[in-house]
Amino acid sequence: MLLISCPWCGEREEPEFGYGGQAHVAYPADPEALDDEQWAQYLFFRANPKGPFAERWVHSSGCRRWFNAVRDTVTNEFVSIYRPGELP
Amino acid sequence: MTEFDSGPGQTGQQHPDWLWRTPDPKRSYDVIVVGAGGHGLATAYYLAKNHGITNVAVLERGWLAGGNMARNTTIIRSNYLWDESAAIYEHALKLWEGLPAELDYDFLFSQRGVMNLAHTLQDVRDSMRRVHANRLNGVDSEWLTPEEVQKACPILNISPDVRYPVLGATWQPRAGIAKHDHVAWAFARRADELGVDLIQGCEVTGFLRDGDKVVGVETTRGSIRAGSVALAAAGHSSVLAETLGLPLPVQSHPLQALVSELLEPIHPTVVMSNHVHVYVSQAHKGELVMGAGVDSYNSYGQRGSVHVIEQQMAAAVELFPLFARAHVLRTWAGIVDVSPDASPIIGRTPFENLYINCGWGTGGFKATPAVGWVLAHTIATGEPHPLNAPFGLERFTTGALIDEHGAAAVAH
Question: Per the CB < 8 Å rule, is A36 touching B301?
């Protein structure tokens, strides 16, 4: 089980959290300009690295706030945890 | 049998003869398959058998069938909702029925039936819809009342006094289980006999390219040229494709499973519950084999979180009160690549002569022979087989998804 440090509540156990997948995926700035290929990339394609991965978590059973983290997908070590708008 | 030094304190140990050669890689092959799991081995077998292509290597970074082929819960069924899925899984099931004889290997294929329980009114409606859809596709499928459920599996609790009572189940009599390791070894032995080189301890680290054409692979044992390259690397597909700058719409997650201690035969069939969320069968040797859904987060670590196991056990004990006294013997995880629509990706890639088989997520074992059949066809002819044509990478652009999330009789 992962121990995750919520930036607001501190360290809590994984079942308190929901997972949000890759972080920093911006909604297209000009959606109407996208062709099918570009929409597919936005909707369905996400990074899937073996190693450090910037991802989103939500503290569902706590403060219910979203935050970002960089976690190593092999060791599960959290390299950094940071609030929205902050940098890793 | 080959005698070997068993070391101090151990006597009489023998290693059986190997079922395949251990060749060094040649400088080039007509086809290279990356990944010696069930899918890769079946692909090599059908390349040789169906298409006469025997100058083939299967490259494996670890040992043969040591990834998800060694870690799955061995359930075989074809009762999928959508036409495209039913077609490919039913093709697989028909192949399974003939494979023990064809491969001359008894891998304990046991058509003991698979039951998918319904616990809510919506479950009942969805299940009945799936029964009808299956029948229209020629897949054996029946609806069982709670009493019929208990008759098929007497240890299952059908009391109405539980949080999610059993309201009925779908039943596929031809479904069942097989001994996964032996399936791999059966394909490996026959592929080897047909001339395929099975090369273990040979990790593919990159690709040889001529423009947008793939002409070989870089490996930890040197470069090997190839007419065609097919990826069958499951959870590590993204890592391989990344070396080509080819993004894949899959995410790698741990999928856990576990076995109990060995018990007398008590569980005659396979029971799956989407809603309470566990699936259970009893292996021939006697252990209860259980699994459920993936861990939520991306991972390549081949281990998961203990609360996921606890949830599985809570579900299992709810359905089978008898299990409360059984001990968990072992838990483990494999890394599965989950696609956005919970359907696999099998076909061509934007790179010439490079073929992909990935995205099987939690359900690849049952499809093993069909994957080999259609991927071999795709490689040999350069065109997808009708059974895998709907499963191409391009469906994420066209929008023609095959949405088996939930529809597939189990949550992923």
Answer: no
